[in-house]
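Posting for a labmate who doesn't have an account.
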Amino acid sequence: MSSSETSSAPTEKQPTTILCIGMAGSGKTTLMQRLNADLHAKKTPPYILNLDPAVSSLPFTANIDIRDTVNYKEVMKQYNLGPNGGILTSLNLFTTKFDQVLKFVDKRAGSVDHILVDTPGQIEIFTWSASGAIITDTLAATYPTVVAYIIDTPRTTSPATFMSNMLYACSILYKTKLPFILVFNKTDVVSHSFAVDWMTDFESFQQALQQDATYMSSLMNSMSLVLDEFYSHLKVVGVSAVTGEGIDDFFEAVKAATKEYETEYKPEIERLIQEKASQHIQEKEEQHRQQQLSKLMNDMKVSKGTEVPLDSGSKRMEDEQWEEEDEEEYENEDEDDEGEETDDEQENTLLGASRFPPSSSQQQNDAKFKAWLNQANESSMN
């Protein structure tokens, strides 16, 4: 196959993962049901994951349900936990098997366009826990992933509640580092137009703050200035999970967020993955180097020295003393050569002439010489 054919080959289709996150009571599960029904009506059924172990019943059928793997009430009993601790522990246990979950998702990835993920009602359990971060990062590294932050619109009409939701949305955006969609739910009760005005028109929010005489008004005024830049990069839609109003707008925002993921977020995610992989390789190489160095040092290890035995030391001292005595004998012999030598001195000189004992032939010659010398002395005396 030529390079032109390879470049023109279609890339493998990947579904978009939609993480539905929101406060308790914001209508996440009801919105999930509406999204599921709308996609089934379009003959494009989604793949659904339920990550809420404490939900009693679901209005839709989940392809993968955490309740099939972890019993929330049994976890509370065995670990002596409360409701929030039981949800967190159940999510942690489920995360240990999330690689198997991905295998099931991969089998259906080519036949679906969307993966819907319903998260626990306690928003902090998923967004700020280690297990939630692992699930989010794993999905984002595998498929285009979008965060849909669900807001209860009727409860956000006061500036204080609105600002609290915006601050939470800002923190989740910078925590997940993924394309973000603000979904104002329950627009059939209260329109979300006031929220759009507050986000786009600074003076409109200031007028709403003037009606609030509490001490929080000054804080919200300052925070609105900080969040003005944050608003400009957000996609905002209003939906009604009951009537289905705004669902098409929501999916249009999902398409735009998917393109944003491909162009802006995916390169950064791949760069981070490569950095982690290279760092892991460097750590392994460093460990291997340290192991080899330790092995080399053990092989080259030399003892610091051992004590010299006293016997060998005494023997060396004797040798040194013997050499000194020999030198003194040589000096005495030189002095005796200047004067007269007696028979005893000559005999000692002959015996001490060498450091080593004379051979047997030398001893015989010495005996003959001594006998001749004695005979000569006797003849001279007569």
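Reply:
Got it, the structure tokens are right above this. The CA atoms of residues 316 and 322 lie 10 Å apart.
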